[in-house]
Design a protein that fits this description.
Blueprint: E1 27-31, E2 39-45, E3 48-59, E4 72-79, H1 94-107, E5 119-129, H2 134-148, E6 158-165, E7 168-171, H3 175-180, E8 183-190, E9 195-199, E10 202-203, H4 207-243
Bound molecules: uridine-5'-diphosphate.
The site of uridine-5'-diphosphate has 11 residues, from helix 2 and helix 3.
Length: about 240
């Protein structure tokens, strides 16, 4: 992080990629993109391109990992070697292990785990292109993939980050802001239940800035939530039309 951050926002308050402080990158969502998965979704969030595939609820393999009283959610976040500028080894890195855990824990509160004992749901996230904020975009896509698999959910989970760049709190950091900015606060949120399922902070913020960042991230989540619901409807409206 950050000595060079003074050039990330110009005098008019415009960020390096042309956005205002409270402006999201463009988001495109598509559901049901992988016929071999029970459910799937594709997200383009700015320059991030991410696929999520969901399977289950199904019998757990290996069986000893099954829980007698609940469903087990397993998530694997993986970055393709070509997803970043400097080739990433295809082997799982510490960061990918952490993000897999973070994604799983942010999705679990949306599921009725106790209603599906001895079963498992698996979610595979493949980052095809990364540009900052991949954990958030992955959560948004993974929640859609689970919904598309027909797994009952209390709410969709949607994620967005906010952070501090050049002494300004901004929403939805892209790669340069993520790396050169002074703080990053990823938030995952269930808008209908008004519940946060992930809150992390990297860097330093005053209590006021932190509150502002969380509020901005939640506002961002609410906007993406509308697109998530639209993406689900788009798939199932088409199916309905074909059936009729
Ligand atoms: N990144 C990279 N190489 C790597 C891992 C990450 O270039 O091996 C970039 C990528 O663009 C990623 C960004 O660094 O989105 C920020 O990574 P971070 O760990 O903060 O997670 P993210 O913001 O993607 O959730």
């Amino acid at each position: 992080m950050n000595e060079k951050s003074d050039k990330l926002i110009d005098k008019k308050g415009i960020r390096g990629d042309g956005r205002k402080a409270d402006e999201l990158r463009s988001v495109k969502l598509q559901v049901g993109v992988l016929p071999n998965a029970d459910g799937s979704a594709y997200i383009e969030h700015g320059k991030n391109k991410i696929l999520a595939a969901a399977f289950g609820p199904r019998e757990m393999h290996p069986k000893h990992l099954a829980q007698a009283d609940r469903m087990v959610l397993r998530c694997r976040y993986h970055m393709a070697p070509f997803s970043v500028q400097e080739r990433k080894s295809p082997a799982p890195s510490r960061r990918e292990v952490e993000l897999s855990k973070v994604i799983k824990e942010s999705l679990e509160p949306a599921l009725f785990l106790e209603l599906y004992p001895r079963t498992g749901v698996d979610v595979f996230v493949e980052v095809l292109q990364a540009d900052g904020g991949t954990r958030c975009a992955s959560i948004t896509a993974a929640a859609l993939a689970i919904a598309d698999a027909g797994v009952p959910m209390k709410d969709l989970v949607v994620a967005c980050a906010a952070g501090k760049v050049d002494d300004t709190v901004v929403v939805d950091l892209y790669d340069a802001e993520d790396k050169l900015g002074s703080a990053d606060v990823p938030v995952a949120f269930m808008p209908n239940l008004n519940a946060i399922t992930l809150l992390q902070m990297d860097g330093i913020l005053s209590p006021d800035e932190f509150e502002q960042a969380v509020n901005m991230a939640m506002e961002g989540c609410k906007k993406i939530y509308v697109m998530q619901k639209e993406a689900l409807k788009t798939k199932y409206m088409v199916v309905k039309e074909i059936e009729e």
